[in-house]
Amino acid sequence: MKVLTANRLSDGIAVWYADGGWAEIVGHADIAHDKAAEDRLEAIGAAAAANNEVVDVNLIDVTAVDGLVEPVRLREKIRAAGPTIRTDIGKQASAAPARAA
Questions:
Q1: Which of 21, 26, 28, 82 has the fewest CB atoms nearer than 10 Å to its CB?
Q2: What percent of the chain has pLDDT over 70?
Q3: Contact 20, 81 (CB under 8 A)
Q4: pTM for this structure?
Q5: Which residues lie below 8 Å from residue 36, measured CB to CB, with a gap of 6+?
Q6: Cβ pair 22, 58 in contact under 8 A
Q7: Phi-psi group of 20: left, alpha or beta (phi > 0 → left; psi -120 to 50 → alpha; rest → beta)
Q8: Are 83 and 13 in contact (CB under 8 A)?
Q9: Cβ contacts of residue 61 below 8 Å, gap of 6+?
Q10: Which helix (H) or strand (E) is 81 found in, with range?
Q11: Rounded to an integer, what distance in angstroms lies between the CA atom of residue 46 and that of residue 44?
């Protein structure tokens, strides 16, 4: 399973492609379950980067843990949650987890 991630150009926040836009919570992202879906997400990411909406566009591996979408790599887990030294700020302080589709 993969999702499309990037950083929003206007403020640098990590975002994930979801339902025709960019969500700030990885659990809301559209999940690619096959190569055709991955290709579709890559094309969407390339167009968004060309339109100066986002930068650093990448497909990343995710998994479902207890029904929740979670990045596989540590770097992506940190991007999804926020600062590691202050858990009272960032996404981990306010984000409600989203169920895997």
A1: 21
A2: 86
A3: no
A4: 0.83
A5: none
A6: no
A7: left
A8: no
A9: 1, 2, 71, 72, 73
A10: helix 74-81
A11: 6
- Tokens 């579709």 sit at which residue? 40
Cα–Cα dist 64/85, whole Å: 25
22: left (phi over 0), alpha (psi -120 to 50) or beta: beta
Q: Tokens standing for 93?
A: 């302080």
What's the pLDDT at 81? 85
Given a cut of 80, is residue 92 above it in pLDDT?
no
**Tokens linked to 97:** 């987890």
Annotated domain spans of the chain: 2-94
State the residue for tokens 């029904």. 67
Q: Is 15 exposed, middle or buried (0-12, 13-18, 19+ CB in 10 A)?
A: buried
